[in-house]
Design a protein that fits this description.
The protein has eleven helices and no strands. The chain is mostly helical. The chain has a domain of about 80 residues: Serine Threonine Protein Phosphatase 5, Tetratricopeptide repeat. About 30% of the residues are buried.
């Protein structure tokens, strides 16, 4: 009986400590949002560091974001990598990681991360578009088309994807195909000066 009472007391004590820690973390997050709004990024970071737990996905994710805002891109990458390690299927952590990696112009790493996301979520339209754009920028038009088309299968009237596919075909000298997709983009936004100018030249 005495042993059972001792066990109950220990369990209650652990529960109370955990609750107190949770309250501290929530308070720290609340305070960090205020500091972030005031662009006091280091203050926001320090607030969270006071309750930091290396095994906390949300703390690593938030610290990655704050270091990105502070323009400490390498440190931001480190925290996002920790978040990904804790939640291997996380898309949000990978999208977070892309932000500082883009700022560092590490394009191969950006592309690798986007492709990791597409393994998890093949129909992610934002990522498919961005991968298509990277390949278009690299003049790999065949690969670019593959990713842009996957967006248009789901959103056939999407302005950006139609415009990009039009540009992708134009770069290959495929004028008929380029006109088709530029026309769709122009139907979506008849006031697009950029598309109007391109269409005049075709």
């Amino acid at each position: 009986m005495k042993k059972s009472i001792t066990t109950i007391v220990i369990v209650l004590a652990i529960t109370m400590l955990a609750k107190a820690q949770d309250e501290k973390v929530i308070a720290a997050f609340s305070s960090s949002y205020i500091s972030e709004a005031n662009k006091e990024y280091q203050v926001s970071i320090s607030t969270l560091e006071n309750v930091y737990d290396a095994n906390s996905y949300m703390l690593n994710l938030r610290l990655g974001w704050l270091h990105y805002l502070k323009k400490d891109y390498v440190k931001a990458q480190e925290y996002y990598k920790k978040a990904i390690a804790l939640e291997p299927k996380s898309i949000e952590a990978r999208l977070g990681y892309v932000a500082p990696t883009t700022a560092l112009e590490k394009w191969d790493d950006v592309l690798k991360t986007y492709k990791e996301i597409l393994v998890i979520d093949p129909n992610n339209t934002v990522v498919n578009y961005r991968v298509g754009y990277i390949y278009y920028f690299r003049k790999n038009f065949v690969e670019a088309e593959k990713y842009i088309v996957s967006v248009l299968k789901l959103y056939p009237f999407d302005y950006d994807s139609n415009a990009l596919l039009g540009a992708n075909y134009l770069a290959q000298g495929k004028i008929k195909e380029a006109k088709k997709y530029y026309s769709i983009a122009l139907a979506y936004n008849p006031n697009s000066k950029e598309i109007q100018e391109v269409m005049k030249k075709l």
